[in-house]
């Protein structure tokens, strides 16, 4: 951060020297690799937000799990609730349960987001309906850290119907896919629990991908891009 940031905190976030150092040490993302899906470390992320408005609503909590060596590593888990002041009550509280007291006890957004990006490292991210999470996380990082998110995001909600074309769940939500594969999910609409459910679904989908001779993150994204282009063409 430069002197301009200190003189004009309204234009860019005001960070302490320690926070600036942490920000500078964040590794760049190398993009999706040609290594096998099993070799790739993935971070599966889920956000709870104050609503679904991409411009106005805020990230309230971040939950994440890690897939590494072809399995979910329960020893690598992340969860933070972000402190948000002057946040009005929203009907979404009925889903995620993050009321005023939980938000008031949260971490400062700058530290929570730095913690998360240090946890991510240079790994690609997975999410269910990832465009929403990618946009909201990118907005939060820009507002709090003046950081541009460049890590690849892969959408599990799009991978599922592509890799399982016989299921007829093309526009289904996470609950429908969890039920379809008989996954044991004890809790939902909690960032960490949803990230775990998404990670379990992703492992099944990676197995389906390998059976279809798709065995690298880069090849999987390329196949997904092709599938989505064909889907768009058929919709006209």
UniProtKB/TrEMBL annotation:
Q: Which InterPro entries match?
A: Ribonucl_H, RNaseH-like_sf, RNaseH_sf
Residues of the Exonuclease domain: 41-211
* One Pfam family this sequence matches: RNase_T
Question: From the UniProt record, which GO molecular function terms apply?
Answer: exonuclease activity
Q: Does the keyword Nuclease apply?
A: yes
Report the Gene3D superfamilies cross-referenced here. Answer: Ribonuclease H-like superfamily/Ribonuclease H
**Methyltransferase: is it a keyword of this entry?**
no
Give the record's keywords alphabetically. Answer: Exonuclease, Hydrolase, Nuclease
Report the protein name in the record.
Answer: 3'-5' exonuclease
């Amino acid at each position: 951060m430069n002197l301009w940031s200190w003189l004009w905190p309204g234009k860019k976030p005001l960070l302490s020297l320690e926070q600036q150092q942490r920000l500078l040490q964040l590794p760049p993302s190398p993009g999706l690799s040609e290594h096998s899906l099993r070799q790739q470390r993935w971070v599966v992320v889920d956000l709870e937000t104050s609503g679904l408005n991409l411009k106005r609503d805020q990230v309230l909590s971040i939950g994440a799990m890690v897939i590494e060596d072809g399995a979910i590593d329960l020893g690598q888990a992340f969860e933070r609730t972000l402190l948000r002041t002057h946040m009005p009550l929203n009907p979404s509280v009925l889903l995620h349960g993050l009321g005023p007291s939980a938000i008031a006890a949260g971490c400062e957004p700058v530290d929570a987001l730095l913690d998360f990006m240090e946890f991510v490292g240079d790994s690609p991210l997975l999410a269910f309906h990832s465009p929403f999470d990618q946009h909201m996380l990118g907005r939060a990082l820009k507002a709090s850290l003046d950081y541009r998110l460049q890590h690849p995001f892969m959408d599990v909600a799009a991978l599922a119907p592509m890799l399982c074309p016989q299921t007829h769940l093309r526009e289904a939500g996470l609950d429908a896919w969890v039920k379809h594969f008989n996954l044991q999910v004890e809790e939902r609409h909690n960032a960490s629990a949803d990230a775990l459910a998404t990670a379990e679904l992703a492992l099944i989908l990676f197995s389906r991908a390998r059976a279809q001779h798709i065995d690298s993150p880069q090849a999987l994204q390329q196949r997904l891009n092709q599938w989505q282009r064909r889907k768009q063409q058929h919709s006209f």
